[in-house]
Amino acid sequence: MDLTPIGSLRVSRLILGCGNFGGIGSAPAFHGMGETEAQAIELMDRAWAAGIHAFDTADAYGGGRSETHIGRWLKAKGSSVRDRLVLTSKVFNPVGPGPDERGLSRVHILRQIDASLSRLQTDRLDLYLMHEWDPDVPLEETLRAFDDLVRAGKVRQIGISNVTAEQLALALGTSERHGWTPVRCVQNSFSLLDRSAERELLPVCAEHDVAFTAFSPLAGGWLTGKYRAGRPYPDGSRMTLRPEPYLHLSTEHVFRGLAALEAVARERGVALSTLALAWVLAQPSVAAAVIGPRQPSHLEQALAACEVRLTPDEAARLAREF
Question: pTM for the whole thing?
Fold first, then answer.
């Protein structure tokens, strides 16, 4: 597995997204759903054996179950695995009903880092992300808290997710003025069906040496072939559980593009999802992609993407289908 730099870290180009361990993302309505602990352990074992030595989670995923599953896996594997694993978690989403149980206030950050470390059964996070931008808390308060975590040895590098180019520039400028630890990673949605980062965000990342990692590289399952024009959505799919972020994709134009992409995948002898992920990895501005396999076969299709080499012209032709 090829490695890519994120600040001082060296990260595998595929990152195992653990958002479905014990739930479906952060939504309380889905806590207890998703992968069981046994299923999560199987996925982690297979990912680790394949060279995926970076795991991504968040304090609110599955109501804390995701971090707990990873922590038990880590304890069983021992220090030799922990020392080689790049472990990411995030803070922002609600973990309880109270006003101080969400957001990016100093008190919430300091409380949640200790809760995350306890569940993960480790003494540090390699990468700690602001899961969202918090308009209700002064940016200086948030960045100072993150800097203190780095100085305390609880966090090695910091990053931010779901951010705009303007917000990233503001965070970088604020940290520079105060001499605080800078953001070294941005994690945003990016795929053949969501290229919104290209115009402004990716250039800012490149200018300031901020690594860009792509989540939802398969657009919530739309780039797997599971959704077909005129057919009902499969039971248990995102489009039956929380369709709102993807409703705009149900158009004739998108379905035509998917058919064209599927034809190319057949010609190359790979799954549609493999080709779509290979396109993301072929983008020079993308350091790594966060994958969220629900079963081992999905993981194998993702791993196959690392073997698909797309020229710039081939990648551009695929993009033009959408």
Answer: 0.96
Instruction: Yes or no: say if 146 and 181 are a contact pair by the CB < 8 Å rule.
Output: yes
pLDDT of residue 241: 85
Q: What is the pLDDT of residues 291-319, one digit of tens each?
A: 999 999 999 999 999 999 999 999 999 99
Strands (DSSP E) along 22-71, which ranges? 54-56
Catalytic status, residue 246: no
- The Cα 122–Cα 154 span in angstroms is 9
For the domain made up of 3-221+285-310, the CATH class stated in words is alpha beta
Nearest Cα to 172, choosing from 183, 161, 164?
183
Tokens of 207: 């200018």
Q: Tokens representing 213?
A: 């990692």
Residue ranges of domains in the chain: 3-221+285-310
Q: What is the pLDDT of residue 22?
A: 96
Number of Cβ within 10 Å of residue 20's Cβ equals 21
| Helix 106-120 and helix 65-77, axial crossing angle in degrees, nearest 10 | 40
Q: List the chain residues with pLDDT less than 50.
A: none
